[in-house]
Amino acid sequence: MKNGKRDVEELLKPERPKLLLKRIFAFLIDVLIINLILIYPFRKLLEKYTDITNISFNFDFFILVLVICLITLFYFAVFEYYFEQTFGKLIFKLKVSSRREKPKFIQTIIRNLSKISIVILIIDCVYLLNRKGQRVLEKISNTRVMKDE
């Protein structure tokens, strides 16, 4: 019974919802940056390939989407590896940590794999509501987001 009480107390901590909200807004800022730097310059090309009247598999479109996904992954991974935070996390005073303080590069790649697909990201984030406040890939990569003091 004590363990159940601890779980409820953990969920009701006032900083948990604040941290979650900060994480959401930090992610939205990062998505905005990625859209401005990466998606916006390729918008005409993307519109050409996503035209509803021209639904056919195109290898060029596949390569373009793959490159955008890889650059997105590396945006998050490189900034979290070198600075322990992205621009969004910097604004909201959050940082990524692991048990050994600074995450290894492979940890930052693993923790951000879900950011290349909205479906995978949603599935990954559902787990975020657990008592430790970690996404699935954060748990696998042994990392977590915390306040930057």
Plain-language structure description:
This protein is mainly alpha-helical. It has one domain (2-147). The protein has helices at residues 2-11, 15-39, 43-49, 59-82, 87-91, 105-112, 118-126, 136-141; strands at residues 94-98, 143-147. The chain has a two-stranded antiparallel sheet with strand order 1-2. Helix 2 (15-39) crosses helix 4 (59-82) and helix 4 (59-82) packs across helix 6. The protein starts with a helix and ends with a strand. 19% of the residues are buried. Residues 1-12 have low confidence and may be disordered.
Structure described in brief:
This protein has helices at 2-11, 15-39, 43-49, 59-82, 87-91, 105-112, 118-126, 136-141, and strands at 94-98, 143-147.
Strand content: 5-15%
Unreliable residue runs? 1-12
Overall mean pLDDT stands at 82
Tell me the radius of gyration: 18 Å
- Secondary-structure class: mainly alpha
Describe the secondary-structure layout:
Layout lengths: L1 H10 L3 H25 L3 H7 L9 H24 L4 H5 L2 E5 L6 H8 L5 H9 L9 H6 L1 E5 L2
Helix pairs in contact: 2-4, 4-6
Any descriptors?
single chain; mainly alpha; 2 strands; two-stranded antiparallel sheet; 149 residues; disordered N terminus
